[in-house]
Amino acid sequence: MVIHKHILVFVPLAVLLAGCHSGSDDDTLNSSRDFRFQVTITNLTTGQPLSPAAVVVHTSGWKAFTLGESASVELETLAEAGDNRDFIAAADIDSNVLATVSGQGAIVPGATAQVTATASASSQSGLLLTWASMPVNTNDGFVTVNSIDISGLAVGQSETYLAVSYDAGTEANTESADTVPGPAASGLAEGFNADRDDVRDAVYIHPGVVTQDDGLTTSTLGSSQRWDNPMARVDIERLQ
Description:
Layout: H1 2-30, E1 33-43, E2 54-58, H2 73-81, H3 85-92, E3 97-102, E4 112-121, E5 128-133, E6 141-149, E7 158-167, E8 204-205, E9 232-238
Antiparallel strand pairs: 1-4, 1-9, 2-3, 2-5, 5-6, 6-7, 7-8, 7-9
Helix pairs in contact: 2-3
């Protein structure tokens, strides 16, 4: 009888303890918290306004582009017209994207803009950040920091990155007034065009602009629209 008494007491306690342990694990697995990052973008060029920033917080399953591969239509639209709406909308529906945000306006040469993105996740591990804008006095250029690892940033800590320019490879670099959407062409350009007439049809490092000052007679650009990489400085700070 004594043995049976101990067994009856011990078994419910074991079940109770196992149940509590399982519940604790579930709480940990299902919990999420907010991670907030401030992205400060400084335009380092003398004559290339940058289109409103597109900022994406994501994991490794999402990429804005791959060097040497065709650009998505959404990236093409951003790089040809400076319009980030489709780019952000496409990112929003991807399960690997945790937050998207758009800047409020163009970033003129020498100016700084700030964008704050908040991502909800169970852990900071694996978090990446991408920013992209168009240098608007180009045919299909974009400037970016691509898949920056922000998983190690502590609250109050920041890192600085220098952003270089890329060519979406979707439009020939004619620099003509009807194809460059920026102020150098007085707003006469069509912006996005679904026809791809760049023979590469792949993302590559931007070679820079030639301009009429260097003999390209079809160009609407002048020497002030030239740039040297990097095009922008990007400071990423974790706020929360």
